[in-house]
Amino acid sequence: MAILPDHLRTVAQRFPDRAALRVSGATGGAGATGGVGGVAGVGGAGGVGGVAGDDGRGETAFSEMSYAEWDGRSNAVARGLRQAGVEHGDRVALFVGNDSAALYQVGYFAVLKAGAVAVPINPRVARRELEHMLADSGARAVVAGPGELARVRALPPPATGPRLIVGPGAAAAGELDWDMLVDGDDDDFQVGVGPDDLADILYTSGTTGLPKGVAATHRSALVSHPLMPIEKPISLLHSIPLATFLGTHGTQTLCLRLAVTNLLLPAFDAARFARLIDTERPAWIVMVPAHALLLIESGMLEEIDTSCVRMLIYGSAPMPHHAVRQLSTFFPRATLMNGYGLTEGGTSVVTMPPGEALRRPGSVGRPVENDVVRVLDDKGDVVAAGTIGEVAIKVESGQRFYHNDPEATAATWRGDWVQSGDLGYFDDDGYLYLVDRKKDVIVRGGYNVSSIEVESALHEHPDVIEAAVVGVAHPVLGQDVAAVVRLRSGATFDVATATTFLADRVADYKRPRRIVVSDGPLPRTAMGKLDKAALRDLLEAGAAS
């Protein structure tokens, strides 16, 4: 069976000079580290990243890497890792941000070519989380970007023995200089691995405790449905963090399998993103809902030509239907496609067929194959259409599991089915609708309230830019409904306003009894999902006002 590095070799031989990666905001050339300069600050718009830079003259500079360079550099780095003692099955962490995207992509494939297991870690994690991920995975080495090298060096040495540190300019004892590795022998290199050997471990936040590592085999790491290289050179624009499931197996792997150019804006900025659409003419765009909402809010889509965009893919969190309507207006030639999947389940298993997004508000689409998605009751039995249950996704037994956590694995993967934690239902036409995360359902006085439903209704208000709905403790009802909203400049919004507006939209017991107006963007995870835990903490502590 072919593995991901085999596909890179094939595409590199067929399209050696085609750009595999173009990174916007770079001040340097296409050096070995993918040197993307001009990155100023962190925690930018929407809390999804920092602010990308330009060349000082208002023009965007790019760092570029061809498919042949990607393949050759990953060969050289893989060979160097083996010579440094990395062995088959060793865990190698990739602690690299989007500002060093070429380093990340070369590093990921170098680890696989060395027969090792890649452990991507988002640089936004806190020190405690970083220490946990390195210890839990048993990382034998860490490849760090230039902005992360100091953080890795500051960690205490692992109890299990020395850990190799690899990064640009790393030259101390126990370290390897990335640039020296890249300049090594770039002839084909691949340590033999089997389809059931581990390919990577990606950490995902659980409902409690520290993040869990989802381990995936080489068989599972491949996109499950067939994809063929596209002869015509096109690009896919996004600002997805690469060291996430969507970044690694959504954008990086998708671009490789289709032989398209991965056009990356390292940190989302609505004006820059719109300018890239206008100047770089991408055929495809991938966004999380937070990016889409900020792009719509910016007004920039009214000033640019979007006719180049033929496919607009969104996922990772629910997209408000009003945003889907606006996107269809701003991108009239694009097919809007929602993707639904999860790290535990692998690739997207539900997609929205062309032309259906507007006709089916609230739906995430139809399963890509027969009997790969089920809706189950508490006993594990399939429920009828229109009945709410837990969504389960088919994954071949043993291909994905929680690393070092057999109890959580047994609770989540049951035979060939992974329990998603999402509540949803199928309609009579086979379209899947998500109601809420099981843990986010609000039980108010015995009534179940879907936070997604109330959020979607609040988004219909013309003054609401962002809305999040959570349950807060109540002495009599158990839980009550609270909402945090961000408004357009000069607008006001309170419980009375919400009650009146929602009167014809949701049942009375679903309407928020507490409204908090946020002055800035609502807290979100690295993937742009609303951080419900942070919102609950703010509400319960009375810190938001």
Calculate the mean pLDDT score and round it: 86
End-to-end separation in angstroms reads 56 Å
**Mass-distribution shape:** globular
The secondary structure category is alpha/beta
Radius of gyration over all CA atoms, rounded: 23 Å
Low-pLDDT segments: 27-58
Residues in β-strands, percent: 25-35%
| E-strand count | 27
Discrete helix count: 15
Largest sheet properties: 14 strands, mixed
How helical, in percent, are the residues?
A: 25-40%
Structural notes for this entry:
Residues 27-58 have low confidence and may be disordered. The chain has 545 residues and is α/β, with parallel strands linked by helices. The relative contact order is 0.09.
Would you kindly provide a brief summary of this structure?
The protein contains 15 helices and 27 strands.
Index terms:
545 residues, 27 strands, alpha/beta, 26% strand, globular, five-stranded parallel β-sheet, 15 helices, 14-stranded mixed β-sheet
Strand and helix layout:
Blueprint: H1 4-14, E1 19-24, E2 62-66, H2 67-83, E3 91-95, H3 101-113, E4 117-120, H4 127-137, E5 139-144, H5 149-153, E6 164-167, E7 175-177, H6 178-182, E8 198-204, E9 212-217, H7 218-221, E10 235-238, H8 245-258, E11 261-264, H9 270-280, E12 284-287, H10 289-298, E13 311-315, H11 321-330, E14 335-340, E15 350-351, E16 363-367, E17 373-376, E18 389-394, E19 400-402, H12 406-412, E20 413-414, E21 417-426, E22 432-437, E23 442-444, E24 447-449, H13 451-459, E25 464-474, E26 478-487, H14 495-502, E27 514-518, H15 532-541
Parallel strand pairs: 1-11, 3-4, 3-5, 5-6, 6-7, 10-11, 10-12, 12-13, 13-14, 26-27
Antiparallel strand pairs: 1-2, 8-9, 9-19, 14-15, 15-16, 16-22, 17-18, 18-21, 20-21, 21-22, 23-24, 25-26
